[in-house]
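Pinned message: reference record for KIB1-4 beta-propeller domain-containing protein
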Amino acid sequence: MIPIFVHGNWQTRRDNARFFSSLMPQSPCLLLDCKKVRESPEGKFVKYSLFDPTTEKKVFSSEKTMPKELLGRPLVGASQGWVASLENKYDTVHLTDLYKPCVSSPRVISLPPIGFKPSVYATEVSLSSSDPVQDDFSVAAKFNEYHISVCNPRTDSEWTHVETPYSLLPASELMYSKRDKVFYFTSFKGLYMASLDLSNNKDLKYKDIRLRNQPKIPEAGWEMLDKCFMSKHLVESPSGELFFIKYTQCIHKEDKDGSLEFIHSDTKRFMVFRQDGMSKDFCYTEDIGDLCIFLSKSEAFCLSSSMYEGLKPNSIYYVGPRLGSYDLASGTNNPFTFDRFGEPSLVSAPFWLYPTNSIA
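Predicted structure (tokens):
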């Protein structure tokens, strides 16, 4: 058995911090970049920039000390507001709350060594708790295309690598269901949905994804979509509803005087399917009420827009070839007008960060 080291000590939540944060809920934000501002004997000090979807503006953090465990480490995923980095020398994943705007003293949780060299650079990571310092929690991650790796850092000294059936390969993004207490993912083509139950001997089950009431699109439109790249995502609402999302991006080549100038990708459309509580089929919908869904390189999540002034209901906030929001009712795409492609930074990929009320 190994402990979770949070700068060498277990930490507990302060009651006054929880009360204060309940009066001022932090909105979701997109982590853009992190840059060194100075160095001293105490360590490296950084600031990072975020995109606030409630105001559609870039904001900046206060100056923070970069924990030594994270120095020079690539970021490989995010879940529940915690960001995962990979230490290649020891094949170890570290979780940190450094990038939460409300955190002044960043914490680091070191997980067991993976046991092999990861074969995928961008790793999907999912946590079962938004407060892994306080709570008993489990982690699921994808370090290659053939296994889902899981561990409970309080009781496990190593990861368990669960082999996935051929029909599920490669596995899609991971998500944790608070309703069902399992990790979910789909197959790459979205034909199957798998559930991993850690309380039942890490049992992996999978079933067909049945889609009903497909959107009414002309045949030529379906043919065009079939030629596009489509990613699949599962996300759970605050009330426990499960949604299956298809995100379509079309690749374009631009030529000038017969020579290829560049290739770029545009967001074409989103299709959202809500799981039926009785049949467990997924039914197409263009109305998710006041909900909004956040998709990026991190674990997808869903929020009630009424809880965060400025968020657009019935929308998807996405990070794809660009950054924007998509209105499901009208099918209107709204790219945000600011340049996120600047100088090289410490962050390898942008992540939507789940809003959190914890303060440290």
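Pinned by admin. Summary line: The helical segments are 15-23, 219-226.
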